[in-house]
Amino acid sequence: MKVAVMQPCYLPWRGYFALLRLADVFIHLDDAPLPRGRSYQTRTTIKTAQGVRRLSLPVRRQADQLIRDARLAGDSWRRKHLASLRQHLPRAAEIVAPIYEQRWTHLAELNVALAAAMAEALAISTPTRSSSSLDVTGRGSDRILDLCRVVGATVYLTGHGGAGYLDHELFESEGVEIRYLDYDLAPYDQPHGPFDPYVTALDVLEHAPDAARRIGAVLRPWRAFLATAS
To answer: How many CA atoms are closer than 13 Å to the CA of 54, on its beta-carbon side?
Structure first.
């Protein structure tokens, strides 16, 4: 069984959904520390005729805060963000409009709800879990391996960032194969200047719905990936 683990991101890019599509179970890592400063957990980017625009969520910051505990500050962001989406991505905005019409207090719950709405539009039905519900302790590579054990993973799917901290041989000794994703960054008919593959996946849903339904990636065994990455 293929498992992926990812922190809840705000209106994620299409690579997030490639990982979600390829997994048999997807775990929202909601009890990881919230990164300080700007991060994909609290902001996304959209393309406009005036250039790239960032939409940032206001969060009440506290020391040693976990993502699941982060509370949103105020409520005016809902109207502003939805207005921006409707102006620049009008068709795709309606996919997430019902989410913005609800009141939200916690960052993780909002991000998970938005990702679920986008996944449904992409015809992705992978079951999801939250790491906070799985009662797993530990940190870093050991924590990811324990999450894999709890849900019965035989394959762990990850992006290139995992190469720097995962204990590949320990995973292998525990019967969990690590596979890295080479994301599909092929361009589609995206307006407003040079192609940018890293904007929110609402962009491809807006401008190229046929391409959106084919969001994917190529899987590479960890030994082959590390051999070419070194």
So the answer is: 9
CB 42 within 8 A of CB 141: no
Residues 6+ apart with CB under 8 A from 93: 82, 85, 86, 202
Contacts within 8 Å (CB) and 24+ apart, 81-84:
81/55, 84/46, 84/53, 84/55
> H-helix or E-strand containing 25?
strand 25-28
Give residue-wise pLDDT tens across range 82-134: 999 999 999 999 999 999 999 999 999 999 999 999 999 999 999 999 999 99
Q: Structural domain boundaries of the chain?
A: 2-229
CA dihedral (184, 187, 192, 193) in degrees, to 10, reads 100
The DSSP symbol for 193 reads S
